[in-house]
């Protein structure tokens, strides 16, 4: 009985709300059309979606309470400015989900509510009307259920009892199931699909990974500064003191002179190795001159004539000779990609010219390195392209290598660089 009462209350309360929801589609359409006609809708439409969200959330909370499940609230808070509000409304999949829900609520809420009203109301109406059979004229008697005439107290009581028993049993079976069907449909209609959840999760992971990579790049820069300004400076000072000590020793110092010589040479080797470590961690020139200056210095010192072209196509206008601000991880990856390809071109390709082109277009950076060498790059032999692929894969980028026998060789790398 408790399930019957809960289901009846849920469906009967949803019937007038479903009828009221009939107004939502035409009102939204009218407000949207007024945006182009009178302009009032430009201000009203985003706020109408907020009202629709609250209306849909009220039904969603009712359905979740009936089912006994927990849901996450879906709030819609408009930003500042009409353009931002419209972009927010048009890009939000939840707004489209609310609009689809209105059609479903109309299509299921009204029939379900009417069915519950008929199932529960028929026996009640029969019990109320049956005792009044004697008020009807004999030639037009009261008819109940399937049009059965009531001619006396026996038929009145029998029809009332049969109506209560039959419709009561049918209501006890059907109403809770009908209410559960409607509630589950309401919650499901306003919940994101598995694909949307996966897409949202991928976006969150991509954003978090970008943050981790930026933090990693910042930490590498900090370590590079510490090693450069601290450890390397101390090694230089030690090497200088050892050199002075060697010069101060007499010619017949013997074993002591040899020890100082080994210590001096060891300190210089340690400095060389430390510089190499610093360069491979995060090139100091990137911090000093940025990616533009670092690439210019890199190509100037390459073993083959190289030219650099930079272009920024974002912000709706092409700007040659600059790329704008890039994440540290992307700058480092682009630098090492160009460095590796220039090294390969100088050592293996026999190229006489290399063109390095970097193009930024919105949230991606395209790095293209082309040489006129003999081609025939074979990644199976452990070329530097394998290292490039690993570095790019860490940033969720793509690598395309074109190197037919006889050349030319073109390596195209696409890196996401949205901040």
Automatic annotation (TrEMBL):
Keyword rRNA-binding: no
Positions of transmembrane segments: 39-56, 106-136, 156-175
Superkingdom of origin organism: Bacteria
Pfam (any one): HisKA_3
Catalytic activity: ATP + protein L-histidine = ADP + protein N-phospho-L-histidine
Keywords, ordered alphabetically: ATP-binding, Kinase, Membrane, Nucleotide-binding, Phosphoprotein, Transferase, Transmembrane, Transmembrane helix, Two-component regulatory system
Segments forming domain Histidine kinase/HSP90-like ATPase: 329-419
Enzyme Commission number, as recorded: 2.7.13.3
Listed InterPro entries: HATPase_dom, Put_sensor_dom, Sensor_HK_TwoCompSys, Sig_transdc_His_kin_sub3_dim/P
GO MF term (any one): kinase activity
Enzyme class: transferase
Entry-linked PANTHER family: NITRATE/NITRITE SENSOR PROTEIN NARX-RELATED, NITRATE_NITRITE SENSOR PROTEIN NARQ
Protein name: histidine kinase
Species per Swiss-Prot/TrEMBL record: Nonomuraea guangzhouensis
């Amino acid at each position: 009985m408790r399930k019957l009462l809960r289901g009846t209350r849920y469906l009967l309360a949803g019937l007038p709300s479903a009828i009221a929801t009939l107004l939502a589609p035409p009102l939204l359409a009218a407000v949207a059309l007024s945006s182009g006609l009178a302009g009032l809708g430009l201000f009203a439409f985003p706020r109408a979606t907020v009202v629709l969200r609250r209306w849909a959330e009220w039904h969603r909370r009712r359905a979740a309470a009936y089912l006994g499940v927990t849901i996450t609230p879906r709030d819609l808070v408009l930003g500042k400015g009409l353009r931002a509000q419209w972009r927010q409304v048009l890009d939000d999949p939840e707004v489209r989900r609310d609009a689809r829900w209105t059609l479903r609520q109309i299509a299921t809420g009204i029939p379900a509510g009417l069915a519950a009203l008929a199932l529960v109301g028929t026996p009640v109406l029969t019990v109320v009307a049956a005792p009044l059979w004697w008020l009807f004229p004999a030639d037009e008697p009261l008819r109940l259920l399937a049009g059965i005439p009531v001619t006396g107290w026996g038929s009145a009581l029998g029809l009332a009892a049969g109506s209560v028993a039959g419709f009561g049993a049918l209501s006890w079976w059907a109403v809770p199931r009908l209410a559960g069907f409607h509630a589950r449909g309401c919650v499901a209609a306003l919940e994101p699909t598995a694909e949307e959840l996966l897409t949202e999760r991928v976006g969150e992971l991509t954003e978090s990974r970008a943050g981790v990579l930026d933090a990693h790049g910042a930490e590498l820069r900090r370590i590079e500064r510490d090693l450069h300004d601290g450890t390397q400076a101390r090694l230089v000072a030690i090497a200088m003191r050892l050199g002075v000590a060697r010069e101060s020793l007499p010619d017949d110092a013997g074993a002591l002179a040899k020890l100082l010589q080994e210590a001096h040479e060891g300190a210089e080797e340690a400095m060389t190795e430390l510089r190499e470590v610093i360069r491979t961690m995060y090139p100091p020139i990137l911090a000093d001159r940025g990616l533009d200056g670092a690439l210019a210095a890199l190509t100037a010192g390459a073993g083959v004539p190289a030219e650099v072209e930079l272009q920024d196509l974002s912000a709706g206008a092409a700007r040659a000779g600059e790329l704008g601000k890039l994440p540290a991880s992307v700058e480092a990856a682009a630098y090492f990609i160009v460095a590796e390809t220039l090294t390969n071109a100088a050592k293996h390709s026999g190229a006489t010219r290399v063109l390095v082109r970097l193009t930024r277009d919105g949230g991606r950076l395209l790095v293209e390195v082309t040489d006129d060498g003999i081609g025939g790059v074979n990644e199976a032999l452990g070329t530097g392209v394998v290292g490039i692929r690993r570095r790019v894969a860490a940033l969720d980028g793509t690598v395309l290598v074109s190197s037919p026998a006889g050349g030319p060789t073109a390596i195209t790398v696409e890196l996401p660089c949205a901040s």
